[in-house]
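re: ur question from the group chat, yeah i did fold both. here u go
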Amino acid sequence: MKALSCADAQGRPGREPLRPDVSKSHLNELPTELILSIFSFLELKPYITSHAVCKLWQRLLPHAEIHPIRRRMLQLYHHMLQAPKFLETRPWLLENLQPFDRQAYIEGLLDQYSDIPEEFQLWVLEWPEKMAVLGIWPGLPLVRFNASTTQTYEGVNWMAYINPLLLALVYNKGSPDIKDNLTPALLIWKTSEHSHWLLFDQDVPELFGRVLLTTYPESPAFYPTLEMYGDDDMPFFVEDFPDWISYLKHRWDAGLKTCPPSYAYANLTDRIKFPVSYQFSSFNGQVLPSPPWTDRQRSGFLEDIRRLLLRLNGGG
């Protein structure tokens, strides 16, 4: 078929000029119920940008029945924008954002475990990269921040590891089989004192999708529980969040309250060197404290766990 030229499109003498299909209805002419139904299928970023299309859309969008997790992400998005210090949190992030394949990131996790917490999955796929919370984002350099500021926390953003890597977190389930006392977890952030974990364990429903912030002098690769100690002698600190969105909101609010204002950028000479070493229970924020989930049955690692559990149970 011959391509239509500009002259044809504008009309030539003796020809009827081409006209747009005037019978086609504009979206705004559709019934309100149908417009709201269309809006309900929007992903987060199109939903956000649609507010700027016209006043009618701006008025209707809040009434669309969007996915409840998208609704919570939208609430977090607006909560962040309303912070007086919001602009102070952006410079380093905007200068260092790197492209990454969001779908490949999710598929990489699914290659290691059969399911992903839904809040985390939608966040990876749809969250605007320029709205990352204080350095927590896969598309940023893997560096160690030497101090906490309004731009990032002190420590290492382990989400920026080359490929997403589930680790084997020790969780004492009381089983005599060492392998049963492990839970798959994604290391999110790590300092010399704190470890932040997103749990993937479907076999323990109360753990799946939770986020733990642990400070435990015995081992950063161990999830301590209250049952291990009396109320007066707990040698650890644990903050427990029911899901990924709750964790992000906490990190945002806590960071703006406690971190001093600063425009000092991270020293990028502190980039983590590859290949990253594994040292079981290491407090060094720049090494992995436990091995990959897919290597959890390695004999040397199982022996490390056996010794740790024996020591924690008072056996030496």
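okk and heres the other one u asked abt
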Amino acid sequence: MSAPVALSIVFAAAAAISGANAQTSTSVAPLADQTYAYSALPYQVEPYGGERGNQVGYNKCNSTTENQESYCQTLIANGIDDFCLWSSPNSNDTIGTSEAYEVAWCAAKGHGTRIMPDGTLLGVQHITTPDYVMIVGYIDQTQVNLAADDYGGELDPHGADLMGNPMGGMVYSNQYPSGNTDNSTLTQVIEWKQFIGGNQFCLMICDPSKTSSTNVGLCNNVYDEVGITYNCPNSAQKGVYEVCDGDSMTPIGQYVSNGVTTTWTQPWSGTWTVPYTPTVPASSNCRTYASTDLYKADVTPTASGSGSAAGASATGKSGASNSSKSGSSAGASATGSSSSASHVIVSGFATVLGVAAAVAFLA
């Protein structure tokens, strides 16, 4: 066993032991209220939990934690060739089960995380707008431990208990402040959202210098059941890897009908239909790349990587409808259908033994 792998096991086990021994009456600030310089991150930003247990992974990540068993929960979003996604540490998992304990999987080495195997990303569009950066596209999700038929769900820094999904998940980027030319400088992103499932993904990071309700609303996390089409309107294509500038999207839920601006709110129960069709914002200055020029992880794909899940088109369908239970989520699928819930409230505890999976006990 290599030293980095052994050290990662120790870190994961230590996180589980400290969580089991922690007093659940001890609380920390909501995840979105916690701010740290990247170099000053603690071992865990949420060492104490509640009904869902304690943070499973760690936030202080480096070369000693970079391997395919890493439990790093600090995500980096720098560019089309250097970004991470949240996904499960356990093979053949679902977002509905793993949302609380997901770890970072990165397209590039150097962040102390798990690395996406070669061939994981099947088409990527990176869009820079005045208010947010969005990385969206197609993925063989079996290569990042999701079941081929999982239609996924949504991750964000809030959650019902305000501890985030994943719990303790931190996000940093060199894309901010706007105009930053020092690629080694990472700024914390407070508001973000990620969808993954149905072999599609979207990661949106909102400009942390803009705190208006409109800007924060672009990373709104309460429209999880309508999926990527409405939350991340885009023109990503399979087999295409491009970087573009673009206009900002209209805040999700907002549309114009008969000349009147109206806001639709996603119901939490019953049968409903979205009353409008999302519009893909204009883009310009697009540059295309070959995937072999962007991704050189040299990590062998897993044998299960068939990528057979049939997700909705990233360009989307209009009039998404759903019949849902209160508190459930339709996940990443644009049409709102899903095989799992992304907002399941997990009770009990989550623990790690060696490199074994974290297990969520459902109420």
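fwiw on the second one: The first helix runs from residue 3 to 21. The CA atoms of residues 37 and 188 lie 7 Å apart. idk if thats what u expected
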